[in-house]
Amino acid sequence: MALLLWRNNPAVVIGRHQNPWMEANLNYLLDNSISLCRRHSGGGTVYHDTGNLNISILTTHKNHNRRFNLDLIADSLNANLGTEIIRNVRDDLLLEPGSRKISGTAARISHGRAYHHFTLLVDVCKYRLSQALKSPNKAMISTNATLSVPAKAVGFLKEEVEDIQIDRIEQVLIDAFQSKCDDVVLSPIESISNRTFDGVEENLKLLQSWEWIYGKSPKFSFMPNMGQKQEVVEVENGVIIQSSSPNFLLGDHFSLDSSSHDFACNRLLRF
Questions:
Q1: Which among 101, 98, 99, 95 has a CA at the least distance from the CA of 81?
Q2: What distance in Å separates the CA atoms of residue 78 and residue 186, rounded to the nearest whole number?
Q3: For residues 134 and 147, what is the distance between their CA atoms, to the nearest angstrom?
Q4: Are 93 and 120 a contacting pair, CB within 8 Å?
Q5: How is the chain split into domains, by residue range?
Q6: For the structural domain made of 2-215, what CATH number should be given?
Q7: What gap in Å lies between CA 256 and CA 258, rounded to an integer?
Q8: Which of 27, 62, 88, 260 could bond to 255 as cystine, CB 3.0-4.6 Å?
Q9: Is the peptide bond before 97 cis (omega within 30 degrees of 0)?
Q10: Residues of the chain with pLDDT > 70: what percent?
Q11: What is the DSSP letter of 253?
């Protein structure tokens, strides 16, 4: 088992089978230097900034246990911070009272290996989170892509523990995993290359590409003139394959704003 704790600059990360035009306000992201990424695992869209802690747990497929991981984290935080965090049936972590969601969850299993990862909201900018995830295009798109399920209430650990520091949370989680695992080795990672992880540079190139961030979106229909003369634009692999609108040309990359390739490549999440 490996526990990876990490943070990054502001970013919106969509699930593997999602549509970025439905999940995020792409113009807001560009105007506010917020990166856009698509991850390998499924699930819904999340917002990152330095006020949340990202947690990834890597195991074999045989030892993959989402509920064990979540319960271990909730129990250790409750014991050390005096919080009341519970796991719900969707494998989210909720902060009581009020059932405020402080963490979603996603996982991927491949080639006998598994990783389970989630965000832990500590002191995130609530306004930027709200605006970044508020797409103006949802009503104009029809698709079978995975849709995010907005939480009824969002919580932050700082609401309950005013002087909380992410460094302290990291140590609590490290101690919790050390108590459950033998021969724990702590390895700070400051930079990643093929020397540290074989193939990581090739994978980074993929994650930075337009074809991955936008082109991986499931096929969808875009209807730009809701309530007026009906026009329909059909998009597959991010490319317009059929259009009754003069503003959307066959063979072009689909785009509604300033996003497209330059935004994807130049403002992508940096590890």
A1: 95
A2: 24
A3: 13
A4: yes
A5: 2-215
A6: 3.30.930.10
A7: 7
A8: 260
A9: yes
A10: 93
A11: B
